[in-house]
Design brief:
This protein is an alpha+beta fold. Helix content is 47%, strand content 20%. The chain folds into two domains: 111 residues; 117 residues, PAS domain (Beta-Lactamase), CATH 3.30.450.20. Strands 1, 2, 5, 6, 7, 8 and 9 form a seven-stranded antiparallel β-sheet that branches. The chain has a two-stranded antiparallel ribbon with strand order 3-4. A hairpin with a 2-residue loop joins strand 3 and strand 4. Helix 1 runs antiparallel to helix 2, helix 2 packs antiparallel against helix 3 and helix 2 runs antiparallel to helix 4. It is rod-shaped and about 105 Å long.
């Protein structure tokens, strides 16, 4: 037993020293701050026991027992290093899960935008004031819209929804008592070009359950400003 204890201390010193070296040599490139915290906490835990094993080896070899006092104090730090390192690993796992969920959400959003842009119907999203916050390609072509840095810009036309007064936006869709049923909408450009649409709407709610906006869909007219064609829903002024 007297021989086994020093051998165990020596083996422990070698194992903890090697573990500490491997931890330090682990690359931190591209890691999150929580990963680095976990790495150095576990290194601190291995360093504590490396020092404790080294102190025991010196004592068993009869060289010195001067490190015993420091060893007793440092061993108190081992649980703190280990527990906080484990917490940092858990935080990194949660962070990775959140990043993965964000990547899935981004891919889903890109796929959904692609589907909306490929739709033959015009689709616009309005805020609670009737301003356009999103338009698919068909809606952009029909209503002559431009998208700059995610902000939809209109060409300065006026919009009349059903019997409501003309307005510079689609506020009439928000306030219309007809709800989601087909609404006659007339859009007129400053040069007199007019587009008549039948619009279907679906209300959107905000976090408090109040009206937060609306999705509006319509079939594009047969005529357009780009080709000058005349159809049943697009007429020149």
């Amino acid at each position: 037993m007297n021989v086994a204890v020093p051998l165990i201390d020596l083996a422990g010193f070698v194992v903890f020293a090697i573990a500490g070296i491997f931890l330090l040599r682990t690359s931190s490139h591209g890691e999150s701050p929580t990963s680095s915290i976990a790495k150095y906490c576990f290194f601190g835990a291995t360093a504590v026991y490396t020092f404790a094993m080294f102190s025991n080896v010196l004592e068993h070899a009869g060289l010195t027992a001067a490190l015993d006092a420091a060893e007793d104090y440092l061993e108190i730090l081992f649980p703190a290093f280990f527990v906080y390192g484990g917490y940092a690993l858990y935080a990194r796992q949660r962070e990775n899960e959140l990043r993965s969920a964000q990547r899935v959400a981004v891919r889903s959003r890109e796929m959904m935008l692609g589907i909306l842009d490929a739709a033959p119907a015009g689709i616009i999203v309005l805020d609670a004031a009737g301003r356009i916050t999103f338009a698919n390609e068909t809606a952009k072509q029909t209503l002559d819209l431009t998208d700059v840095d995610g902000v939809v810009h209109t060409p300065g036309w006026s919009v009349r929804v059903a019997e409501s007064p003309a307005a510079p936006d689609f506020a009439g869709l928000i306030t219309s008592p007809l709800g989601h049923r087909g609404l006659p909408v007339v859009v007129e450009w400053p040069d007199g070009w007019r587009v008549e649409l039948t619009v279907q709407t679906e209300q959107l709610s905000d976090e408090q359950g109040r009206l937060g906006g609306m999705v509006a869909t319509f079939l594009p007219p047969s005529g357009s400003r780009s080709n000058g064609g005349n159809g049943s829903t697009a007429v020149t002024g």
